[in-house]
Design brief:
Layout lengths: L2 E5 L3 H13 L3 E5 L2 H10 L5 E5 L7 H9 L9 E5 L4 H10 L3 E4 L4 H12 L3
Parallel strand pairs: 1-2, 1-3, 3-4, 4-5
Helix pairs in contact: 1-5, 2-3
């Protein structure tokens, strides 16, 4: 069972992501924005995966990725971006910054299950 941190400010997307993570038998932890997610990760680097939105208050997903990838202890942490409002160039830039995978919203159950499995090595 993996510990998965979900950084998502949209209540509906957050609820769906938590439901899918828990259906897979993993433990979901929720952060309402990037700054909270970063502080949560810094408090205990024992998460197996980060699912994050891009557009969030306080610290957006792009800032979160940059901050995490600038810290050696988070080099191996898989990061899946979940977003509805990004174009091809933005996706490319996010992947260059260090995102592992990009997942378009609205979230599709099977696609998220597949991505989680790929990131955790169980696909």
């Amino acid at each position: 069972m993996a510990k998965i941190l979900i950084a998502e400010d949209d209540r509906i997307s957050r609820k769906l992501a938590v439901k899918i993570v828990e259906e897979l038998g993993h433990t979901a932890f929720v952060s309402p924005h990037g700054k909270h997610a970063y502080e949560t990760l810094m408090a205990g680097n024992d998460f197996d995966l980060l699912l994050t939105d891009i557009m969030m208050p306080e610290m957006d997903g792009q800032q979160l990725i940059q901050t995490l990838r600038g810290d050696q202890q988070f080099n191996e942490l898989p990061i899946v971006i979940m977003s509805a409002v990004v174009g091809i160039n933005e996706i490319s830039n996010l992947l260059k910054l260090g995102a592992t995978l990009f997942l378009a919203k609205p979230l599709q159950r099977e696609e998220l299950r597949n991505y989680i499995g790929r990131c955790l090595g169980s696909a």
